[in-house]
Design a protein that fits this description.
By secondary structure, the protein is of the alpha/beta class. The chain is built from 39 helices and 22 strands. The structure holds thiamine diphosphate and magnesium ion.
């Protein structure tokens, strides 16, 4: 249909004047027209295609044309009439506009600088109103309804409408951006963390909404194909700013959507031609640019550029000059037209050609100024949405031409419009009259809210529309827990150790995952997500076991089909093999980690990736995941700045644990042994999916092989809380404590032997699984102590755990020193940290650990050095220890080279 439509439009499109006197061209066109007239547009299309192909074969470079003329994709004669009550809908829209503006205006009068946006929603109002009244379903039978990703800073408009319908209270509106006063309030932007029963998707960080929407639509298909949810007509709508389209995240995954034929996905780009500072493409045309990009990526593109009042003019445009003029004008100029008004438009736009001037001679300047843009015309918007919803086989983007600050009078379409927070008295009065708001003038100046009585026709109408679409759209619900975490005993293979066989924690984790996926109750809910690193992590066996999700199945015979571990793709495959995109994988992780609410299916995602390319690359997405109350496990593979050997500076991760620590709901662990991972994962599933805690996990896994011990009895609590004594001093009471994390625990164990055998120093060794958990616990206890000076002091877990353990503490990690340093406030001068600050190098583990001073020798020497400073070890002897252990005391600091 789409191609045919375009072709129809091209046929109707008047021939360019420059060619009319070229006889040869005219003859070709005439012949072509004749074929189309006699044999139909399909034949016309075939002819053009054949000609193009022939020309290319003959070496003629035929330019690829991705743009259509700068007019609406849907010709007016193909439109269906508007099904709603235009007048009542307009009334609702006006009231919404008023309250959205008033909400921001009054709050800024009361609390200068509190912020808010009034111009984005004013450009978006019609686009949302038509959706709310006719398209956005709140449910499909017993299934959840459509998912709508709103432009974040259009939130005041979304709130205002919900207020009119009684979904949110007047008190909440009055406390817009006043969240900390113990009163019902509204958050600045869509934040499920702050308003968990209203918002589903945090969108205000530009680019994350569109990217997450694409993967949401894809994940919906995944759940359908895996029979975890029924097939419905549910859609994902993403409202995107035209400025926002500059973000690589917005445009980076467009081809995934078309490749996966996501006709459940609709983007609406609010093309008000402006971003924050000024025009999006002052010297170009953003709508045309986006059309080419989306069409090139295989999307169905619907342009909604001109309102119905232009149809009459376009019908008069016999020469094609009007369409040509529309196409020639750059966006910066269009913006100026809006600001300068009708006389200017007449002179500068129509005045370019006498024919155009003549065309509008019967219109006043005011009428010219009021000519609408498509995105403000419900008739045009409705038809575009209808086509989008009915379209099959590919995602749709609607490029809607709008005016930023529409209706704000002198603030309309100005470069500074985005930052407008308050209106002048004059502008308020004008706004009030233009939209006919029954608020007395004095009250209007204060920004008084206005809600008509519940039985007023517009409210009755709007509520009825919503009822027919299933109720309020702005609802986020969390069903009661439906799964039970498997008991720890089911992780028996992971707890039993490797019986002396050298394996890595990554291998241990992969076999744990394989086992979990076999669990009859939760196995099918596990969603392994990998950005093209499955082989790096030894996941071939999982690929064979559960298959890679491929919406079309496997259309080819894999060359390794006769091998046991062949590359298996299945329509109901369980693994999301995302290709090389951490951002895309994180978007899948977000869809899967919030499915417990969005689809009422508690999928448990395990996103396993190169730890270096996680938090630092896609940290903002992780932040939004936490805001979304996402659950699941981020598994940072090939972890550690000295454990991943050979790869060098860009790959060696010594700081993801620092970055993970900044996310409030992220619980990060750096385990040394497989049984520790089992304890963390088991408890994680229990807490997230059984106790329904809003949290997620970051666990580093390494590729160093060593024998995995059996779990010692009674260490579960310590593992989860962050530390436990793994091995006591070999003989007698320890005078030094050694903390180790990840594979560096083995270095601490070797240091324990060196200290005992060579220097007669006894040390206990502790596995520090999470400094972050220990710190959070200690901070909470400190705070309690501070707030309750009259009560007896509580002790943080780190101090309770260390009770009776004496002497200095040497904490060694494959991460930066700041990770153990988090405990400095409680351990004071006892704490000596060894970590991997500085850029990584390409070498093997032995050299890397020596370079970063985290090997056993450095740990032992650090202990001796501190004992000497404490007067517990001979100073001269201590200096010699460095030489004996092969450490050059004058070596340059690895943190700065
Ligand atoms: C990642 C990110 N960078 C910057 C901002 C600040 N910001 C908020 S709105 C905005 C302009 C948005 O322009 P556009 O996408 O065209 O939306 P409009 O308001 O014009 O509808 C900017 C830069 C942000 N929210 N997120
Ligand atoms: Mg914009």
């Amino acid at each position: 249909m789409a191609t045919q439509e375009i072709n129809n439009r091209i046929l109707e499109f008047p021939k360019p004047e420059t060619r009319s006197d070229d006889e040869e061209v005219a003859e070709w066109i005439e012949a072509f027209d004749q074929v189309v007239a006699e044999e139909g547009s399909g034949r016309g299309c075939e002819l053009i295609e054949a000609l193009t192909e022939h020309a290319r074969a003959a070496g003629v470079e035929v330019p690829i044309q991705l743009n259509t003329p700068y007019i609406n994709t849907i010709p007016s004669e193909e439109e269906v009439p508007y099904p709603g009550d235009r007048q009542l809908e307009r009334r609702m829209k006006s009231l919404t506009r008023w309250n959205a503006m008033a909400m921001v205006h009054r709050q800024n009068k009361k609390d200068p600088g509190i912020g808010g946006h009034i111009s984005t929603y004013s450009s978006l109002a019609t686009l949302l109103e038509v959706g709310f009244n006719h398209f956005f379903h709140a449910r499909y039978g017993d299934q959840p309804g459509d998912f709508v990703y709103f432009q974040g800073h259009a939130a005041p408009g979304v709130y205002a409408r919900a207020y009119l319908l009684g979904r949110i209270s007047e008190e909440q509106v009055r406390n817009y951006r006043h969240e900390l006063r113990g009163l019902p309030s509204l958050s600045s932007y869509p934040h499920p963390w702050l308003m968990p029963d209203l918002w589903r998707f945090p969108t205000v960080s530009m680019g994350l909404g569109p990217l997450n929407a694409i993967y949401q639509a894809r994940f919906m298909r995944y759940l359908e194909n895996r029979h975890l949810i029924p097939v419905t007509a549910r859609k994902v709508w993403a409202f995107v700013g035209d400025g926002e389209s500059d973000e690589p995240e917005s445009m980076g995954s467009l081809t995934l959507a078309s490749r996966e034929k996501l006709d459940n996905l609709i983007f609406v780009v609010n093309c008000n031609l402006q971003r924050l500072d000024g025009p999006v493409r002052g010297n170009g045309k953003i709508i045309q640019e986006l059309e080419a990009a989306f069409r090139g990526a295989g999307w169905n593109v619907i342009k909604v550029i001109w309102g119905s009042d232009w149809d009459r003019l376009l019908a008069r445009d016999r020469s094609g000059l009007l369409v040509k003029r529309m196409g020639d004008v750059v966006d910066g100029e269009s913006q100026t037209y809006k600001v300068k008004g009708g006389a200017y438009i007449r002179r500068e736009f129509f005045g370019k050609y006498p024919e155009l001037l003549e065309m509008v001679s019967d219109m006043s300047d005011d009428e010219l100024h009021r000519l609408t843009r498509g995105g403000h015309d419900p008739q045009k918007v409705y038809n575009a949405y209808k086509r989008a919803v009915e379209h099959q086989g590919s995602p749709t983007v609607i490029l809607a031409h709008t005016v930023k600050g529409y209706g704000l009078g002198s603030a309309e379409a100005r470069n500074a419009t985005h930052q407008e927070k308050k209106l002048t008295d004059q502008a308020l009065t004008a706004f009030r009259s233009r939209f006919d708001i029954p608020v007395p003038e004095m009250a209007a100046k204060e920004g008084r809210l206005y809600r008509p009585p519940d039985d007023s026709p517009e409210i009755v109408y709007a509520k009825k529309r919503r009822e027919e679409l299933g109720g309020f759209l702005l609802v986020r619900e969390v069903p009661p827990p439906s799964l039970e975490a498997p008991p720890l005993a089911e992780f028996v293979d992971s707890l039993a150790g490797s019986k002396g066989r050298a394996v890595s924690t990554t291998m241990g984790f992969v076999s744990m995952l394989r086992q979990l996926m076999k669990d009859p109750k939760i196995g099918k809910l596990i969603v392994p997500i990998i950005p093209d690193e499955g082989r790096t992590f030894g996941m071939e066996s999982i690929i064979r076991q559960v298959g890679i999700y491929a919406s079309q199945g496997q259309l080819y015979k894999p060359h390794d089909q006769d091998m046991l571990l062949y590359y298996r793709e299945e329509k109901d495959g369980q693994i999301l093999e995302e290709g090389i995109t951490e951002a895309g994988s994180m978007a899948s992780f977000t869809a899967a980690g919030t499915a417990y609410s969005n689809y009422r299916v508690p999928t448990i995602p395990f996103f396993t990736y190169y730890s270096m390319f996680g938090f630092q690359r896609i940290g903002d997405m992780v932040w939004a995941f936490a805001d979304s109350r996402g659950k699941g496990f981020m598994m940072g593979g090939t972890a550690g700045r000295t454990t991943l050997s050979g790869e060098g500076l860009q790959h060696l991760d010594g700081h993801s644990h620092v970055l993970a620590s900044v996310v409030p709901t992220c619980h990060s662990y750096d385990p040394a042994y497989v049984y520790e991972i089992a304890v963390i994962v088991q408890d994680g599933i229990r807490r997230m999916y059984q106790e329904m805690e809003d949290r997620f996990y970051y666990i580093t896994i390494y590729n160093e092989d060593y024998a995995m011990p059996e779990m010692p009895p009674g260490c579960e609590e310590g593992i989860l809380r962050g530390i436990y004594r793994y091995r006591s001093a070999p003989s007698g009471k320890a005078t030094v404590q050694l903390f180790g994390s990840g594979p560096i625990l083995n270095e601490a164990l070797r240091a324990q032997e060196i200290l005992s055998e060579k220097y007669g120093v006894q040390a206990d060794v502790w596995s520090a699984t999470s400094y972050n958990e220990l710190r959070r616990d200690a901070l909470a206890i400190d705070r309690w102590n501070r707030l309750h000076p009259g009560e007896s002091e509580k002790r943080p877990y780190i101090l309770t755990a260390l009770e009776g353990a004496e002497g200095p503490i040497v904490a060694a990690t494959d991460y930066m020193k700041v990770v153990p340093d988090q405990l400095a406030p409680w351990l004071g001068r006892r704490l000596v940290t060894l970590g991997t600050d500085g850029f990584g190098r390409s070498d093997n583990r032995e050299y890397l650990r020596r370079h970063f001073e985290v090997n056993a020798e450095s740990i032992a020497a650090a202990a001796v050095s501190r004992l000497a400073r404490d007067g517990k070890f001979d100073m001269q002897r201590a200096q010699k220890v460095f030489g004996e252990l092969g450490i050059d005391s004058e070596k340059i600091d690895p943190a700065i080279v």
